[in-house]
Specification:
This protein is an alpha/beta fold. It is about 45% helix and about 20% strand.
Amino acid sequence: MAKKKIAVLTSGGDAPGMNAAVRAVVRSGIAKGMDVYGVYRGYNGLLNGDVEQMNLRSVSDIIGNGGTMLYTARSEEFKTLEGQKKAAAHCKELGISGVVVIGGDGSFAGARALTNAGVNCIGVPGTIDNDIACTEYTIGFDTAMNTAIGMIDKIRDTAQSHDRCSIVEVMGRRCGDIALQVGIACGATAILVPEIEYDVEKDVISRIVETQKTGKKHFIIVVAEGVGGVSDLAKYVEKRLGIEARATILGHVQRGGSPTLRDRVVASLMGHKAVDLLAEGKGNRVVAMNNGKIVDYDITEALDMPRIFDKNLYDIARTISI
C-alpha cells in the first residue's frame, strides 16, 4: 500500500509558535508512517509547486524560533476558483491527500475551499490577536502579550521618571484581548478596546483625575490597534490635564521573538491533533481549544461562530485599575 502523503503550510500573519506546530505535524505524520511535505509561502507555494518533503531532522531545533520556517504570504490568485483548482491539482500530482493549514480566519476560508476542491484540510489557529471565535486560545497570543508587557514595563520606567502619561497601542485590529490582558498585567489606568465604545472624558480623563487624587503622578493607557488614535489622544490628555503625555505604537515587534512555553505546548498539541484528523480521513475541520481541551469543529461552523468578548474581565480591569 502506498504511503499516505500530507502537507503543512503557514498562511497570513506570522505568529510565535507556528514553528512548534509545523514540527508537531511533521513528526506526528512520520510517526504514523506518512510522508510529510512542507509548503513554502502559504497557498502561493501550492500554486507554484514550492513544496519539499520533510524528515525528522527538517524540523530539528525550530521549536524555540519565532516566525515560521515555511515562510508566509498572502495569495490573491488562490482566492479565485481557478487558483483553488490549480492548487488542488498540484496536490494531486504529488499524491498529497491532506493539508494542515496554520493561520487565521482567512487561512481557514482557504482551507475550506481547498477541501471542496478535493484535498482534505485541517485548520490550526495561529494568530497573535486571539480573534478566532471557535477557540479560546490561538498560537502566538501568549508570546505577543509577554512581549508587550516587557515593552510597557520599560515605558513605565521613563513615565514614572517624568511624571508622564504614556499611551501605548498594542496589536488587535478587531479584537481587544491583547490590550485587555496586557492592560491588567501592567496596571493600566485605562484600557481601550474595539469591542467597547468609549468616551474620552469618562473612560480616560476622569480615570486619570481619580487616580491623581490618590497621589499617583504617572499613568499608562493601553489602546488596541482597532481603536487607534493614540497620538491624538496623547495631545488631548496633555492639553486637557496639563500633564506631559507621549504615544507609543509597539507594532510588529509583538509578532516576533521566541515563543513562550504555553505557545510551544499548545502549538504542539494542536499540530498533533491535526495529523490525527487527517489520518482518520477527515477534512474541513478546525482544531481548537475549549475549556483547556484540544477539540475540533467543522470549518463552516467555526467561521460562522460569533466572537464573544470577555466583558466580565473588562469590568474587573476597570475596578482594580484606580
